[in-house]
Amino acid sequence: WGMAEGKRLYSAYNCAGCHANGGGGMGPPLMDDRWIYGAAPANIYQTIVEGRPNGMPAFRGKIPDAQVWMLVAYVQSMSGQAPIDVMPGRSDHMRATTPENARRAETPKQTGPR
After folding, report:
1. Each residue of 50-79: pLDDT tens digit?
2. Which residues, listed in sequence order, are joined to residue 29 by a DSSP beta bridge?
């Protein structure tokens, strides 16, 4: 449920405005194996809450912690890092790529500073 709710929140908070439904745009792609600040849940959480230099705004105090963790779960699923039985199965009208539960898993590699 949390991952599916994270998918809804991803759209509601307009994350696609910068990350283009995971394929990258103004912000980096979330569906590949290159993760600048790491792909661990704690790294993704920190990125959302604290922001990152050169574009990622901080959402501390703007998004409740429970919702941040749902977003973390969904963002991880975008690169195939979640078990198939928990991935959101429904595709939506904004889907431009293969659904999360049909995507080949990528092993994220940290490409930036720790």
Report:
1. 999 988 999 999 999 999 999 999 998 888
2. none
